[in-house]
Amino acid sequence: MNRALRAATVGVLFLSPVVLSACSAGQVTQTATQERDKTGGMAQVGDITVRAAELEHPRGGAYESGDDAELRMVIVNGGQEADTLVEVDGEGIGGVEIEGAEGGTTAAPTTGATPSPATGAAPTTGAAPTTGAAPTTTTGSQEIEIPAGATVIVDGDAATITLTDLDEGLTVGQYIELTLTFENAGEVSLPVTVANPDEALERGEAFDFHHEEGAAEEGTEDAARERESAGEHGGGE
């Protein structure tokens, strides 16, 4: 009976690392397949995926009312056909300026602007602006093309989108809601937060524990030598 018990115990101990290894492998695999894009807003519509959408960190640490904010994001086209970002809408902004890869900044007109009357001109299709209401939707005529199977980074180099005349101040962690319209994929809305600073904030000088421990040891040794010296002088007397 003792031999059988010992054999069973050895078998359990032998199998335990195998079981633990299998569990660990499953956790690693699950972690590896999780979404890596943890910063900025993310949304998907059709073959278009928008990642890392955020407002550039303001120089002073916060946006004030009336400031402009640059929108940064990554647009991925996973389809077989090219698509185009044709419109950017949002609440709490006065306008949008879009500069595509080929340049040519276009200021976006606000939806509540009063058009100049033109004799004999046909009325523009669209809803009439509400009297006294602040504009909540802005568009721009400049477009950004996203080729098939390609990724376009909107960060001020290849393309730039600037939200102008913010209605309210914004700081890190706060967000505004934007709606992006693509020619083929359609509309998608997502929250866009104010980004954290790119560079880490300066911190105080690190505390050197090893140096402090060494100083304490030296102080202890000095005190011991003083006690020995005092004992020798006392014994001589």
UniProtKB/TrEMBL annotation:
Keywords: Signal
Tagged with keyword Lipid metabolism: no
Biased composition (Low complexity): 104-140
Biased composition, class Basic and acidic residues, residue ranges: 222-237
Residues in the signal sequence: 1-21
Region called Disordered, residue ranges: 99-142, 207-237
Stated name of the protein: Copper(I)-binding protein
